[in-house]
């Protein structure tokens, strides 16, 4: 059967939809980039952000729109670079390519392993962590740090510290921002607030504990983890990732200010401590919520299977009951039964 050729109106509509999608992705990437540049760290003469939200936006856009989102990502990378400096060097093309290729590779690897954006299985959380974040972001970090060395922006011996900061910043964007955007895309109105008192209690507790943990002079960052466990147990991914995102933002502000748990440290030590905290927190939030959600789904499946089995047995029992014997039949047992 021959394929039906699209009409000129349909082709025009498709072009307009693609153009609008590209501009929307580019705008979201640029906005996330401007937010990420609010807080910066300087390591070995290179400026980078502890969390680079645009990578999370890029991966989420690819998961939602597919590969057709990559032109918007490339345009967004270029827009962020132009917002920093108007004197773009030829090496900037390499940065655009590397920053676009990394989320595209993340998407391709996630699709290859059957990743589900719902993050309802442990394998989905592991795939996002190890493939989408840690593995794919090696591309952007290597391209970015390598181009800085090739263009004499940093010394060769500074490659590895800068590479590490770039890699972890991009990976944190995927680990923290991508799940948050996935959650936003799944919100349906009206919201069911059956457990709003507990959610409010969790929010108030986090608003008190997180600043104390980050700004306290006793380095009490570990106090955040009970909150993550509470959020994951009671609210699964929605609670744990929102708690992780808020804690990460507060910790990043404290680190860039050199306050609280991050005071009296060198720039490299601040980077290592902050990224270790953000990374372990994101891993805890993603994997714990995925395990809990998977267990709950398994329990519901078993309960449904048991209920269906009970209904089948009741139906078979009703079908095998003797016919013609009323409720007042007291003639005794049938000797032939």
TrEMBL record:
Annotated localization: Cell membrane
Transmembrane residue ranges: 12-31, 51-84, 91-113, 125-150, 162-187, 199-225, 237-256, 276-293
Keyword Ion transport found: no
Domain of life: Bacteria
InterPro entries per record: MASE1 (IPR007895)
Location, primary (coarse class): membrane
Membrane topology summary: Multi-pass membrane protein
Keywords associated with the record: Cell membrane, Membrane, Transmembrane, Transmembrane helix
MASE1 domain ranges (all copies): 23-296
Protein's recorded name: MASE1 domain-containing protein
Organismal lineage: Bacteria, Bacillati, Actinomycetota, Actinomycetes, Kitasatosporales
């Amino acid at each position: 059967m021959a394929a039906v050729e699209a009409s000129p109106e349909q082709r025009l509509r498709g072009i307009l939809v693609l153009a609008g999608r590209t501009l929307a992705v580019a705008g979201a990437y640029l906005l996330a980039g401007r937010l990420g540049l609010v807080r910066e760290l300087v390591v070995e003469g290179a400026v980078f952000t502890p969390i680079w939200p645009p990578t999370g936006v890029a991966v989420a856009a690819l998961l939602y729109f597919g590969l057709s989102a990559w032109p918007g990502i490339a345009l967004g990378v270029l827009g962020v670079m132009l917002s920093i400096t108007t004197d773009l060097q030829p090496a900037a093309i390499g940065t655009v390519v590397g920053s676009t290729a990394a989320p595209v590779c993340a998407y391709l690897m996630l699709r290859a392993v059957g990743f589900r954006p719902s993050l309802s299985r442990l394998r989905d959380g592991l795939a996002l962590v190890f493939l989408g974040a840690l593995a794919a972001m090696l591309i952007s970090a290597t391209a970015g740090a390598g181009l800085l060395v090739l263009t004499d922006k940093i010394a060769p011996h500074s490659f590895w510290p800068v590479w590490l900061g770039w890699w972890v910043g991009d990976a944190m964007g995927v680990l923290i921002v991508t799940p948050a955007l996935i959650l936003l895309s799944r919100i349906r109105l009206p919201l069911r607030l059956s457990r709003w008192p507990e959610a409010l209690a969790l929010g108030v507790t986090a608003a008190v504990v997180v600043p104390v943990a980050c700004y306290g002079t006793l380095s009490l960052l570990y106090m955040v983890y009970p909150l993550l466990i509470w959020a994951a147990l009671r609210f699964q991914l929605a609670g744990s990732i929102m708690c992780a995102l808020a804690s990460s933002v507060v910790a990043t502000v404290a680190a860039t200010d050199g306050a609280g748990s991050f005071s009296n440290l060198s720039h490299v030590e601040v980077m290592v401590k902050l990224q270790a905290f953000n990374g372990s927190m994101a891993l805890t939030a993603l994997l714990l919520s995925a395990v809990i959600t998977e267990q709950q789904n398994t329990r519901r499946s078993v309960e449904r299977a048991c209920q269906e089995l009970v209904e089948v047995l009741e139906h078979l029992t009703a079908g095998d009951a003797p016919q013609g014997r009323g409720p007042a039949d007291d003639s005794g047992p049938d000797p032939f039964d």
